[in-house]
Amino acid sequence: MAVTLAPTHLPYVQVATTGSSGLVTQINLPAAIRHLSLNIHNRDAGSKAASVSFDQTLVDGGPAPAAGAWSIDQYLNYNVNGNSANGMPSVTKFFVFSNSHNAVTVEFLLMTSKPAN
What we know:
Helix content: under 10%
Order of helices and strands: EEEEEEEEE
Distance between the termini: 38 Å
Number of strands: 9
Strand content: 35-45%
Strand order of the largest sheet: 1-3-8-5-6
Shape: globular
Structural class: mainly beta
Radius of gyration: 14 Å
């Protein structure tokens, strides 16, 4: 089931769990907030593996990608909004999953990132 991060203030924390093993859970990012930084933390890192993918072709509840994903050992940090310096578009969603465990608890921290010069 897709989860939408909807901050009313920054920094903002939200916790979610992955679905069944081998299936992705879609996480939607707010489109209207610029210069956004995302920290992803696996709260079950001691006992359960989790990964993240920014492949925009994945579908909520669909199969996890075989390649192109990052392990969430402790935490990962990304600047997720578009950048006028490189012309890349904003990321609007990403996917968390575990290929080996059900219901991994993952924590998301949204903060303001420094804009590019």
